[in-house]
């Protein structure tokens, strides 16, 4: 949240002055104050990655996505930089503190990361508490879990550490993250807990195994690193050379932190494939509650006719379909995500008003 009385404060020491300058250049704005929120000023996942590169170059401090989400102002980020280290926060990331007592929990898509969720959270309103989870296995020393069921149980344990007593569980997930949200909701309801919004952001009921052996590489290349390289050429390189080429190109493009090495890049590729394998092996079970499917209006990428509710009425007690603009990818990008956030908030408020008091 912006602090009106300090918005004009552009830095109280050399660290804050340099960070403010980086933000000005990345955001294309002159009105950056040390207490302004990066994402509220127009920051998004690609700019956040570029920010980590700039901080590494200036201060030799490594930041994670969790660091940027937890320290979203210049003043907060400066504390991390001055300390010389960026503290790891595990899988659970507080995207926005908010002021209410009914938080939303967002589950990771196939990439395993959380950087797509801040714009959604802010579009829901700065008063909305919002947490996101990133996949286990992205950071050095972590080993991914082997099934979606295990992942769901692990995430429930993580969320219990912050979940308010008596509050409903509101869960959302983009694309394949929706299947995680569904499985967590199903398990919680089986245990007699209150489940509120189960928001499935253009999530299909099943995930078909990919016939493309290079799916993980293509997904990381085009959606994660934003690089236009020939996949056939990359496939012809030995694994070590391929990883080094991708690291060099991504660092040069500003889509990968400068301290990334080939091992971390391989971990990112493996995460795409690992999550996809876990989700394609998942055997969905019935859920005795409602789900809300946020369905894109531009369905030109689907390559066939899918049911309006993407099949969720087959397993859920009720499937409510809410139209949102864009296609599967642009629905979470600027220009479309604002509508998605408003529709999510409307559904959350509607369910909260209809729910009995705890």
UniProtKB/TrEMBL annotation:
Query: Which keywords does the record carry?
Result: Hydrolase, Phosphopantetheine, Phosphoprotein
Q: Where is the Carrier domain?
A: 10-85
Q: List the PANTHER family hit by this protein, alphabetically.
A: FATTY ACID SYNTHASE, NONRIBOSOMAL PEPTIDE SYNTHETASE
Which GO molecular function entries does the Swiss-Prot or TrEMBL record give? hydrolase activity
UniProt keyword annotation of Hydrolase present: yes
| Organism for this UniProt entry | Streptomyces mooreae
Pfam families according to UniProt = PP-binding, Thioesterase
Question: Mind telling me which InterPro entries this protein's record contains?
Answer: AB_hydrolase_fold, ACP-like_sf, PKS_PP-bd, PP-bd_ACP, Ppantetheine_attach_site, TesA-like, Thioesterase
Q: What is this protein called?
A: Alpha/beta fold hydrolase
């Amino acid at each position: 949240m912006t602090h009106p009385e300090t918005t004009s404060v552009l830095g109280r020491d050399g660290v804050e002055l340099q960070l403010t300058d980086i933000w000005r250049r990345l955001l294309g704005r002159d009105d950056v104050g040390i207490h302004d929120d990066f994402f509220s000023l127009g920051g998004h996942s690609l700019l956040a990655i570029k920010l980590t590169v700039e901080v590494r170059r200036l201060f030799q401090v490594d930041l994670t996505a969790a660091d940027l989400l937890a320290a979203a102002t210049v003043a907060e980020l400066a504390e991390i930089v001055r300390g010389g280290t960026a503290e790891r926060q595990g899988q659970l990331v507080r995207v926005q503190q908010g002021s209410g007592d009914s938080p939303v929990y967002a589950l990771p898509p196939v990439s395993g990361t959380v950087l797509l969720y801040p714009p959604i959270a802010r579009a829901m309103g700065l008063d909305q508490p919002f947490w996101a989870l990133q996949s286990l296995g992205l950071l050095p020393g972590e080993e991914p879990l082997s099934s979606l069921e295990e992942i769901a149980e692990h995430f429930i344990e993580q969320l219990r550490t912050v979940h308010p007593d008596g509050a409903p569980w509101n869960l959302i997930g983009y694309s394949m993250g929706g299947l995680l949200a569904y499985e967590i909701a199903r398990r919680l309801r089986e245990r007699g807990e209150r489940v509120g919004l189960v928001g499935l952001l253009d999530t299909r009921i099943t995930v078909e195994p990919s016939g493309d052996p290079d799916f993980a590489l293509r997904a990381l290349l085009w959606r994660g690193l934003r690089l236009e390289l020939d996949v056939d050429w990359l496939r012809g390189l030995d694994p070590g050379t391929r990883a080094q080429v991708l690291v060099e190109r991504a660092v040069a493009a500003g889509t990968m932190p400068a301290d990334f090495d080939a091992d971390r890049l391989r971990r990112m590729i493996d995460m795409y494939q690992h999550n996809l394998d876990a989700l394609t092996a998942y055997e969905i079970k019935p859920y005795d509650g409602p789900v809300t499917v946020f369905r894109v209006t531009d369905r030109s990428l689907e390559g066939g006719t899918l049911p309006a509710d993407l099949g969720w009425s087959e397993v859920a007690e009720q499937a409510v379909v809410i139209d949102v603009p864009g296609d599967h990818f642009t629905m979470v990008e600027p220009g479309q995500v604002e509508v998605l956030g408003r529709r999510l908030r409307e559904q959350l408020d509607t369910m909260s008003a209809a729910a009995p008091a705890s």
